[in-house]
Design a protein that fits this description.
Number of helices: 6
Helix content: 10-25%
Structural class: alpha+beta
Order of helices and strands: EEEEEEHEEHHEEEHEEEEHH
Number of strands: 15
Largest sheet: 11 strands, antiparallel
Oligomer: single chain
Distance between the termini: 31 Å
Length: 354
């Protein structure tokens, strides 16, 4: 992998990740951009103890532009974009309309390919592996920032999810705090460790799923994917490396090599869930990594107790119908799932590639 860092016209960082070492990335951003001005602020809710990012400047962000005006496609002639070069393998840049910025963290956009009409599932194993290297590198770089405590790599795919740009891309958030969802996991981890005399909750969950087998969707030599026992979403898969590590940096060469095979197969299966002729399945794919900050509030837990994993889920519950977060989910955070996890796992096994 070759990494080339440069700057856009307004001062934001842009990084190219190339599979070839002989690629030269010296194209300049020719847009007449003023320096980016953000108003991001993090406020803490005194009742729930969680944080809310206030970012009013995001109201002006690009919204469903025509395909020939996509800001994530490479620059072509007089059509100038966020990526000045005429092609790229993987490109990462600071978000022009970030939810978090400055002392409140950092937000980046990850373009998986220069091909506007592809999705992640269409990538080759080599391309998917390069995206994994980019996620890993950005995790390492952002972890060094004083304003970042936790790094979150994710992809929102589909208009139903709220995606406003159709180009295949994801995002990376560098939070200045440990996120509420991760904090819940760490509390459960600490409680389980105390109650079982030191056992690891993540390891016990994975071992139980492997022993049971009913909810296993896909198993490789170094990765296992399963529908969790108490899945929140109609079709939800958790993907774990079999050798527990706290973050992407901890993956060994064997796990990195096998990841594209396993992950691309999962994404292809997601697009087959609802049968032939159906539109692409909207989904969220989210990497859960251990925070880089102190874990003192979670007594007895350290970073190595956390288990890196990816959670992949769709809000579509059946053909033409979405799972909306209504009163119980939005008002009380109590999910009601219409699809039994065992049924979801069986369906995801049925649609395996031949």
């Amino acid at each position: 992998m070759k990494k080339t860092s440069t700057r856009l016209a307004d001062g934001r960082e842009l990084i190219y990740y190339d599979s070839r070492d002989d690629v030269v990335r010296d194209a300049a951003d020719r847009r007449p951009l003023e320096p980016t001005v953000t108003t991001s602020e993090v406020r803490r809710d005194p009742l729930l103890g969680d944080a809310v990012a206030i970012a009013s400047h995001r109201q002006a962000r690009t919204y469903h532009p025509p395909a020939d005006q996509c800001p994530l496609c490479p620059t072509e002639g007089d059509r100038l974009s966020e990526v000045p070069d005429s092609s790229y393998d993987v490109a990462v840049f600071e978000n022009r309309f970030p939810s978090l910025a400055g002392d409140s963290g950092r937000c980046e956009v990850v373009c998986f390919t220069s091909d506007h009409d592809k999705s992640f599932a269409d990538l080759s194993e080599e391309q998917a592996g390069l995206v994994l290297e980019a996620w890993t590198d950005r995790t390492a770089e952002l972890a060094h920032l004083d304003s970042v405590e936790q790094v979150f790599c994710f992809e929102n795919r589909g208009a139903e999810i709220g995606v406003t740009l159709g180009h295949p891309h994801g995002q990376i958030y560098g939070y200045p705090f440990t996120t509420p969802r991760t904090a819940l996991m760490l509390r459960s981890l600490a409680q389980h460790k105390e109650q079982t005399g030191g056992r690891n909750l993540f390891a016990d969950v994975v071992d139980k799923e492997l022993a049971d087998g009913e909810r296993i969707v896909l198993e490789g030599e170094h990765w296992v994917a399963f529908v969790p026992y108490a899945a929140h979403w109609p079709y939800e898969v958790h993907l774990y490396p079999k050798r527990q590590v706290p973050d992407l940096l901890g993956l060994d060469a064997d796990a990195r090599t096998e990841f594209p095979q396993v992950y691309l197969e999962l994404l292809k299966r997601f697009d087959r869930i609802f049968g032939d002729g159906e539109p692409p399945t909207p989904y969220i794919a989210a990497w859960h990594q251990a925070p880089f900050g102190t874990l003192e509030e979670f007594e007895g837990v350290n970073r190595d107790d956390f288990a890196l994993h990816l959670e992949l889920f769709t809000i579509r519950r059946t053909s033409g119908k979405l799972k909306f977060l209504a009163g119980s989910e939005s008002g009380m955070s109590v999910f009601i799932n219409d699809v039994p996890p065992e049924t979801a796992a069986e369906r995801l096994r049925e649609v395996a590639s031949k």
